[in-house]
Design a protein that fits this description.
- The complex is a heterohexamer, with 3 copies of chain A and 3 copies of chain B.
- The relative contact order of chain A is 0.15.
- Chain A is 68% helix and 1% strand.
- In chain A, a hairpin with a 2-residue loop joins β1 and β2.
- In chain B, β3 and β4 form a beta hairpin.
- Chain B is α+β, with helices and mostly antiparallel strands.
- Chain B has a 4-stranded antiparallel beta sheet with strand order 2-5-1-6, with helices on one face. A two-stranded antiparallel sheet of chain B has the order 3-4.
- Chain B has 2 helices and 7 strands; from the N terminus they run βαββββαββ.
- Chains in contact: A-B, A-C, A-D, A-E, B-C, B-E, B-F, C-D, C-F, D-E, D-F, E-F.
- At the A-C interface, α1, α2, α8, α9 and α10 of A face α1, α2, α3, α4 and α5 of C.
- β2 of chain E pairs antiparallel with β2 of chain F, so a sheet runs across the interface.
- The structure holds adenosine-5'-diphosphate (ADP) (3 copies).
- One adenosine-5'-diphosphate sits at the interface of chains F and B.
């Protein structure tokens, strides 16, 4: 009973402290506005560090799913892309994402983005602009992380970083400006709460373009036969998935963008629950399907199922009821189980399953929003999905091709055989362990 | 240095199922062979590997994990050693492995320099 | 545009709220009650994501302590159980845990648990019900995680999930209802602040029942000889322990259940300190004892020592002074060092040491509460320990036996030899590394 | 002294914001002061658990960079040192660090440090003393973690723990008292916001003293030739780096020491941004330099680059603009790339690169403070750097020598060959994997 | 037990580049040799290992990863087997490896006890 | 293809303590043997493994990690090679290992097709 006793005790104390306040509440610098400012900012900071942590999640997930000869490279790409994303999103990204237009297609505000000065707080916004920038930046980095997984094991490091440079500085920001930046999609009524389309599909499309243009890993699809290339470490992949799951509470929860009122914080709580339930649904469905289809439960599918569930709920984590969240996430899990082998049939080599997880589940999540949030027009959702796909595919393809036909994107066959760790990093991931 | 005493010793190479190692060791000790060297190997043969499904793609690992046991011994005990291994390593199922016998021309114990079958 | 809309909306609410409230501040929800509501909810959310993170801790700890041929399976079980726990605790668990009775033995409220609607906040409770549910759910999942470690390497995945299904949907909730749910134990004055008994012993008893009924791993105890089966990765086990230690600040700290007053937040701080000190005490004692007893310091004992210290302090992390916390945790560390070999003598095969850590240290922590909190009657503590043990052992045994004599609980000897990863998951944890 | 100045400043702002409240502040606990108290405490708690998490980061980083035969030992040392640090900092450390003097050299307040009682809150301080102690304790532990990395693979466990005992109980606290404890350095105007010198250089000096006195690993430098000893697991080292990066938001952000006003929380946000940018700068510079110098990008250098960037900004994460933060961090990254091979030339064996990262970048960060914070006199910074170096080198050397000539510090050559895991821990880190 | 039929069988040991394994296996199957045992080895020879840079220090790993293939076969097919391996494993580049042929005195199939070349 | 020149070459198999590898290699180079193949093995013999304590249970790993070195050489140099290995690998302590000498009937360098001792 202590769980309730304590609460009432807590209220009691406040109640006593309160009355004195009552009178001046109206006139003086309303403390609750300041308190709201602090709490809103705190939400961005907590959400921000949780999403930053997702960079580690992607690094571990990918390190675990590539072969050991490419693990160091995957680690390098992940820490590098996170750093580049931060710099680019400050240099021009944020200014393109929030150009200050109404219903526009593309624009740019002053750049690089000027953070506030020491001790400066802008009560007008209701939160610290630096905390908002930080929270937005980590979303940008997430988009790049998605790409690194799909094109792993066969892209040289410098070409990859060049792609990240453009993706985080230009492609992603433009898409964001359409919706969160008050652009034309937003004007249409398109709704993407935390970025199923803006973040995940964008990353997924860029990854797909890469996979198509770069081609599969050497020996992956030989005369119609699929060569399985199992990942080097399942526990690392599992760790990465748990990290991402944790980070997602910040990703979706802090996308409420405010915690200064009891209704906002209650909504954040509801988002936590729905986010968790969608992931759980994705896991359970992936487990059941793989058991039924293969008589074995592929743990990597369960991991992808969790992530697909999370991506699916990201477009609208607030309005669904728990059963709806379970359903939305569960379908995400099913998408993974069916899409992964499908991509193999199409000879599209997606090393970590980022296309099913981020692109396909992202589309599903975006299109299903009207199901729980009736104010959202389906046509707007469809438009958003298509427009993002067209733009990102074209823009990414241009960049991938430009790299391919200039400095080249793939290592030599011998280098790829040898592994990128020896070829480009010079440091093997597990130098002491014999390969069996 | 040592004079080669051809043929008085044998070098036995046995490929067995990993979980049979302890049985084989005991069997060899039984016939007085206490030393041996073991190596992790992969085998190809009649026995096929497990069929696994990874991310929706089925595949068979046609390599089967095995252990290779190398035993040097005097010709006199070679036959019993081979028998002991065969008895201990058998499971009547495909993939039990092989025992190969080669002539060992000479052996040296590094520590003492002893040679021939005293070295073993 | 939602990024800005929401904000202004957020401010609007406060703005609207503020003046209106001014007058009636005394009677109805006054701003500081709102602030308390927000802070209480925030405590649940932070505590909740920290405890959710413990699921990753258990996964890594167990992945590191099982043999490499069963690591994928352990990862699968952990992500699966966390998902199932979430669904079951929503479906019926929470309603059984909080049936709304006074001093009862078993009951159930409406189920599945209805979360609040969008924007809804119930000022009466003083926190968002969704945040409370989330915080309670992760505790339920922890209970299941404890079981997976003990019975690792020899339980098929489906039977294990079935057990988790019952444990999280029924067994754990019933125990919770006795105390936190205002049941008979609570009426007796039993006190278990954050769950040494309700969570950890419950998991430990369920694990013990499993270990006894399922039996040891093949070849573990042959004609009186103990075959040592070292874990596959000590760094993963260490990582898991650090994750659990981190998560425990949420586990114990947020069990204060309120942060809306200066005394509550101060108590949360005190809980952080005591929690950390108990863990430190457990580590130091385990290190000293193993050094003295074996002339070597077994790192896995130090890791278990930290966890045992944490479990020990969980029943009462607030009232002890620092020396008391060190002592309580230190004894926990000693329990591990002596209990682990003891279980081996009894041929009880506990792969990760969850029985000494969660069950035995949990009992110790519960019984020692009166030492620092004189208001708590020892007899109530003893009753709680015994009652929980009897109920959970009986209930768990029924389930384990039911599974054993229907679909069966263990893989075939050959499968167990081969490892569950190949047998049931189809994916090896470290496919590329030769086993030495 | 900033620790207290900041607080009062914080309160000042609140006071201004609530004039009406000013009067009755004396009698009734003024609610907005209470809210500030809660938020300040919350900042310490969040910052505290984030920095506690850094202990796991060091453990993983070091476990990944030592050879597999010493990984269990490295895990043991890390969990042990964190525990010892907590106990020592409570027993006497905090009282030496905050002796309550003005401009003094060394002193001690009552010890062991008395935490507050249940429900007690001291409004005077503006935060819970327990939360402050917790936050300070984890800094102390960080200092010890730095040492373990440098002297890894060749120091017996008990001698190492003895050193940690003195470092965390005496050496570190004395240095802290000079500045944060209002000692003579603080009086001089020395400024070290979050501890580039107090924490990182102190750890770095202690590590350097150890490396010199203990000598390099067996066979590391034989007749002028450097034997490379690659780390056992790059992904673990990468994970450790990401953990540290995450923890650093708490390390620097919470060193603002207050979140109860809109200006404080805005500054915390600015600190988050600068901290992230400095790390990003360090990564990018390390990547570029290694590519240019070696035609390969050594991922371990990129990881160290991130950490060096973080250490560099730690002395002043608030006042720099983003470009300044990038520059400060970038130079840190360059320091690593050049200093690591330099140490090898000097035959100083620093297993994980802690000396370049924590000591050298820490000095750089401290000396560059006046560049962004003109109020800080360069001479004071220089004095602080030199004084800390002299004191810590002398004190640490005394301890290392004392240990060396009594119980001895190194294992036997044979034990070192065999690895410390077998020799002293009795548990191999990866018992099942063949070493290639 | 078995009488030693000296010289009717050969024991072939080939050291090859790891990525040539599948080609070699197919080649051997081509000449009717279906069984083989593979071991991970490190080789020293003319071919030098990769030069890597670790934390600013250059170093050459003078060991090169190789695979060792052991094949027991009847003398009759030994020559073709050796040729098959050589043809399949060659890349015309240094480090392609060696093929060693030893006399195999006897072989036993553990499962059946068959001996001599019927055991292979 | 190659004609078998029986007995002109030897196949030396040495089991040594892992940390002696470099010494042995230098010693072999000293007698003109530059090529060799190394394998990780576990050895059983007089030398017993470390006694370790894991979670309160003592156990002895009766397998000792060793390295197996395989060297093919002309009979002429075999004796010196064996002596070189013995001298370099010795530590006068139990477990130093063994050196086994077998007859090598033929060798082929895959790259060139050279046979006999020119292939080595
Ligand atoms: N000709 C051969 N040369 C070398 N090793 C062989 C040969 N044939 C089989 N082996 C080894 O023996 C193992 C078992 O052989 P296999 O044909 O699978 O079953 P069985 O021993 O029952 O005939 C194989 O995995 C392989 O390691
Ligand atoms: N004398 C030898 N004894 C045993 N193995 C050898 C010998 N010489 C070479 N090898 C093996 O053959 C491999 C290739 O030999 P190497 O001299 O590098 O190239 P190549 O085969 O083209 O002459 C070596 O890595 C080693 O494993
Ligand atoms: N009869 C044998 N056959 C094959 N290898 C052996 C034999 N006896 C010993 N060995 C190998 O030699 C190693 C050392 O032998 P051991 O008896 O331990 O010491 P020593 O060489 O000093 O006699 C063993 O670990 C094993 O690998």
């Amino acid at each position: 009973m202590r769980k309730f006793l304590t609460i009432s005790a807590g209220l009691a104390v406040t109640a006593v402290a309160a009355p004195a306040l009552a009178q001046e509440a109206a006139e003086v610098a309303d403390p609750s506005a300041n308190t709201a400012y602090i709490l809103n900012t705190l939400l961005f900071l907590i959400g921000g560090f949780l999403v930053m942590w997702m960079a580690a999640g992607f690094a571990m997930l990918e390190a675990g799913l590539v072969r050991s000869k490419n693990v160091s490279m995957q680690c390098l790409k992940n820490i590098g892309l996170y750093s580049i994303a931060g710099i680019m999103f400050w240099a021009i990204g944020y200014s393109i994402a929030y150009p200050g237009f109404e219903g526009g297609f593309i624009g740019i505000a002053d750049f690089p983005y000027a953070m506030q000065g020491v001790g400066e707080a802008d009560v007008g916004t209701g939160y610290s602009v630096a905390s908002d920038w930080f929270f937005q930046m980590v979303f940008c980095a997430t988009t790049a992380s998605i790409v690194s997984g799909t094109v792993a094991e066969r892209v040289k490091v410098i070409p990859f970083f060049i792609f990240v440079f453009v993706l985080t500085g230009f492609i992603y920001p433009v898409v964001v400006s359409w919706e969160w930046g008050a652009g034309w999609l937003d004007a249409m009524g398109f709704s993407d709460f935390a970025g199923s389309t803006l973040v995940h599909s964008t990353g997924g499309w860029a990854a797909l373009a890469g996979a198509l243009i770069i081609g599969p890993r050497l020996g992956r699809y030989v005369n119609g036969k699929i060569t399985v290339m199992p990942g080097s470490s399942i526990p690392l992949a599992t760790l990465g998935t748990f990290i991402l799951w944790l980070g997602w509470f910040g990703f979706n929860g802090a996308s409420q963008l405010a915690m200064g009122t009891i209704s906002d914080v209650s909504d954040v709580s509801k988002i936590f629950v729905n986010t968790n339930m969608a992931a759980a649904g994705g896991v359970v469905v992936a487990i059941i399907l793989t058991q039924v289809m293969y008589k074995k439960i592929d743990v990597t599918m369960a991991l992808n199922g969790a992530l697909a569930g999370l991506v699916s709920i990201t477009a609208e984590p607030l309005t669904p009821s728990v059963p709806q969240a379970l359903l939305i996430g569960g379908v995400g899990g099913a998408i993974v189980v069916f899409a992964v082998p499908l991509l193999d049939k199409l000879k599209i080599d997606d090393v970590v399953g980022a296309i099913p997880v981020h692109l396909m589940a992202g589309i599903w999540g975006t299109l299903i929003v009207p199901f729980s949030n009736t104010e959202v027009p389906f046509v707007a959702q469809l438009t958003g999905v298509v427009a993002t796909g067209v733009f990102v595919m074209i823009a990414s393809s241009i960049v991938w091709f430009a790299i391919k036909y200039t400095i080249g994107v793939r290592p030599s066959e011998e280098q790829e055989m040898l592994g990128m760790d020896i070829a480009e990093v010079g440091v093997e991931a597990y130098p002491e362990f014999a390969k069996g | 240095m040592v004079t080669t005493i051809g043929g008085v010793m044998k070098f036995i190479i046995a490929i067995i199922k990993p979980f049979k190692l302890d049985d084989v060791r005991e069997a060899l000790t039984g016939v007085g062979v206490t030393g041996m060297t073991v190596t992790e190997v992969k085998g190809f043969g009649r026995q096929k590997g497990q069929t696994e499904v990874y991310r929706g793609a089925e595949y068979t690992t046609n390599m089967v994990p095995k252990l290779k046991i190398e035993v040097a011994c005097a010709s006199a005990v070679a036959a019993q050693a081979v028998e002991a291994i065969q008895a201990a390593a058998g499971t009547e199922s495909i993939g039990d492995g092989k025992i190969f016998t080669l002539a060992l021309e000479d052996a040296v114990r590094i520590r003492t320099g002893e040679t021939g079958d005293t070295a073993i």
